C-alpha cells in the first residue's frame, strides 16, 4: 500500500528534494488525502520559486501521510516507510529555507542540560491546512547535550538533522513491565545534516541523541495520541539496565529531571559503552 500510495502521487524528479519536521498536534485534520492535483502556492516568498514547488508538494504530501496515520488508514510501520521515502527526497538547503532556519535559530538559547525547541511554521500553501496534522519543531543543543534516552506510547515522530552531527541509538520496545521497559538494540550510528530517523509504537520506539558538533539541530514531525489513546514518554535509565534473555535489556523508567541530570550532558563516551 505504501508503494502504491507514493507512486500514485507520482513524485517527479523535481520533487526529489523534500523535508520534514516535528511538533505537537495542533489539530487532528481528518481525511485530507485526495487524488486532486496539488496546486502550487504563489505566495511563498520564503524560498526561490524553483524550490517552492518541490517543497510545497513535500509539505502537502507529508500532511497527507500524517493524516492517514491519524485516521488509521495506514499502520505506523507504513507511515515510517513513507516518511523515509519523503525524507530521502529532501534537499537539505531547500528545507532550511522552507522553514526559515536562520531566523528560527536567531538568539537561540542553548541549555546547559538537554535541549531547547522552537515551533516551526510552514509558509501558507494552498492545499495545506494552516494547522498541520502534525506538530513541527526544531530541537537544538550544544555539544555533548542529549535528547535523553526515552521510549514512547501512542506516538510516532520523524527527525531530520538540519545542522551538526549526532551519535544516535535506537531500541525496539518489546514491552512495558510495571516501571521497566524491555527493549532490544536496533540502531547505533553517527548521523549528520541531511540524515534522518523515526520512531513509532511499532518500530525503533526508543531513541537517544547526543550532539557531537559545536551545536546541532533536528527538525521533528510529531504525531500524538495515536489509536485514540493518550501519548506518553518513558525516560529510561539505560546505564543501569540489565541484560536479560533473547538479547533484550530491562531498563527502569525514570522521571525527566533524573534523566536530564544523568544523561542531559557529557554522556557521549558512556553512550558508546551502553548496552
Ligand atoms: Fe522521542
General description of the model:
- With 275 residues, the chain is α+β, with helices and mostly antiparallel strands.
- The chain has one domain: Jelly Rolls (Sandwich).
- The protein contains 7 helices and 13 strands.
- The longest helix is centred in the first third of the chain and has 22 residues.
- Bound molecules: fe (ii) ion.
- Fe (ii) ion binds next to strand 4.
* CATH class categorisation: Mainly Beta
Helix content: 10-25%
Instruction: Indicate the radius of gyration in whole angstroms.
Output: 18 Å
How many structural domains does the protein architecture include? 1
CATH homologous superfamily, by name? Jelly Rolls
Question: What is the count of β-strands?
Answer: 13
CATH architecture: Sandwich
Using brief descriptors, characterize the structure shown.
Jelly Rolls, 32% strand, 13 strands, 275 residues, 6-stranded antiparallel beta barrel, binds fe (ii) ion
Layout of secondary structure:
Elements (H helix, E strand, L loop, with lengths): L1 H7 L13 E2 L25 H22 L5 H13 L3 H7 L2 H4 L11 E4 L15 E8 L3 E8 L2 E8 L1 E13 L2 E13 L3 E4 L6 E6 L3 E9 L8 E5 L5 E2 L5 E6 L1 H8 L4 H5 L3
Antiparallel strand pairs: 1-3, 2-3, 3-10, 4-9, 4-11, 5-8, 5-10, 6-7, 6-9, 7-13, 11-13, 12-13
This protein binds fe (ii) ion.
Amino acid at each position: 500500500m505504501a508503494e502504491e500510495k507514493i507512486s500514485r502521487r507520482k513524485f517527479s524528479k523535481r520533487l526529489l528534494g523534500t523535508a520534514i519536521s516535528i511538533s505537537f498536534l495542533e489539530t487532528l485534520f481528518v481525511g485530507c488525502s485526495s487524488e486532486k492535483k496539488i496546486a502550487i502556492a504563489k505566495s511563498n516568498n520564503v524560498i526561490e520559486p524553483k524550490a517552492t514547488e518541490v517543497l510545497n508538494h513535500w509539505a502537502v504530501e507529508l500532511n497527507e501521510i500524517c493524516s492517514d496515520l491519524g485516521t488509521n488508514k495506514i499502520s505506523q510501520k507504513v507511515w515510517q516507510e513513507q516518511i523515509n521515502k519523503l525524507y530521502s527526497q529532501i534537499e537539505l538547503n531547500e528545507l532550511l529555507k522552507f522553514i526559515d532556519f536562520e531566523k528560527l535559530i536567531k538568539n537561540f538559547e542553548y541549555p546547559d542540560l538537554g535541549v531547547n525547541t522552537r515551533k516551526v511554521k510552514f509558509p501558507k500553501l494552498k492545499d495545506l491546512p494552516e494547522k498541520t496534522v502534525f506538530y513541527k519543531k526544531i530541537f537544538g543543543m550544544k555539544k555533548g547535550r542529549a535528547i535523553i534516552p526515552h521510549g514512547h506510547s501512542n506516538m510516532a515522530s520523524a527527525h531530520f538533522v538540519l545542522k551538526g552531527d549526532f551519535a544516535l541509538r535506537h531500541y525496539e520496545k518489546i514491552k512495558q513491565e510495571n516501571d521497566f521497559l524491555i527493549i532490544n538494540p536496533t540502531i547505533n550510528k553517527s548521523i549528520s545534516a541531511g540524515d534522518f530517523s523515526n520512531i513509532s509504537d511499532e518500530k525503533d520506539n526508543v531513541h537517544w541523541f547526543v550532539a557531537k558538533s559545536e551545536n546541532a539541530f533536528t527538525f521533528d514531525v510529531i504525531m500524538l495520541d495515536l489509536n485514540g489513546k493518550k501519548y506518553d514518554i518513558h525516560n529510561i535509565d539505560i546505564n543501569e539496565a540489565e541484560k536479560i534473555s533473547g538479547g533484550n535489556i530491562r531498563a527502569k523508567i525514570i522521571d525527566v529531571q533524573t534523566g536530564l541530570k544523568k544523561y542531559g550532558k557529557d554522556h557521549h563516551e558512556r553512550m558508546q559503552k551502553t548496552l
